[in-house]
Fold this protein.
Amino acid sequence: MKTVVVFSFLLLNFTGITFAQELKKEFVDPMPQDSRSTAVKVKGGTMLFLAGHTASQPAPDADLGNFDAQFKATFDKIKNTLAKAGATVDDIVSMSVFVTDLRYVPQFNKLTKELFKKGYPAVTFVEVSHLARPQSLIEIQPIAVIP
Amino acid sequence: MVSESVSGGNETEESLISIMKRLGLFAAILLAGFSQPIVAQEREMIIPMPQSAYSQAVKVKGGTLLFLSGVGPADEKGVLAAPGDFRGQVRATWDNMRRVMAKAGGSLDDIVTMTVYTTERRWGEIFTDMRKDVFKTGYPSSAFVEARKLRTPGAFLEIQAIAVLKE
């Protein structure tokens, strides 16, 4: 009996440690009309910091001037990067979005609505005069937390 | 020795004591396990730059991460506060940031890093001067970048922050 008690104490102890590392995620003040959350709160999990992703490489320059095509190519690359790290789009908690024209934002919101199934990340939009390559219309730098 | 004189060398009682001792040890391990998440957050500001109210780095261990969307000088309906008034917009931005942090269960002092996007970098010193009054327990790391345009038309600045809450 005593051994059982001791073992249950031990088990409790180990589960306590497991709980501490399990990912807890909370979307603070979501704004579904803008496809983003005011903030995303996370405890535990594994962090993944991504580089700024654009449609420019290795995709060809055929997407010149086509925002929808660049958006898709950019997210294809992000998904590929995430997959290599064992993550998915739903693990993204934050995105810095650099665009050459803020008039793309409504279209961006429309397209991201279809991407995030479990809740929207925190997003910051900034209009910049240039991105690394002259034909780029958008660059996205995400942060993800993997459960 | 004491237990022997009391129990008269009773083996079952001795093993009971040894189990009790073991239990004590496991209780200690258990406590150590549970206290792990409660351990106070460790935070260190590396190379603080008080003249510009930021730190070159912030080292932090423990706590809950909070990723914020860009916060600017617009109210919740998106209406710009203090059009044409940089100081007024900086004040409105920090008021909004304070509100967001409170909503998430924290305060401005939980911010560890920020990227400040501005359309008016010539007023950078006004921004950093005003930031001295915002943080009470140490300055976060920061980058100050010129943007061509921000989301709210007429906004001079927008701040993207990451915070670590003390829980």
In short: Chain A touches chain B at residues 2, 5-6, 9-10, 12-14, 16-17, 19-20, 24, 28-29, 36-43, 47, 93-94, 96, 102, 105, 121-129, 143, 145 (CB under 8 Å). The longest strand of chain A covers residues 138-146. Residues 77 and 126 of chain A are 21 Å apart (CA to CA).
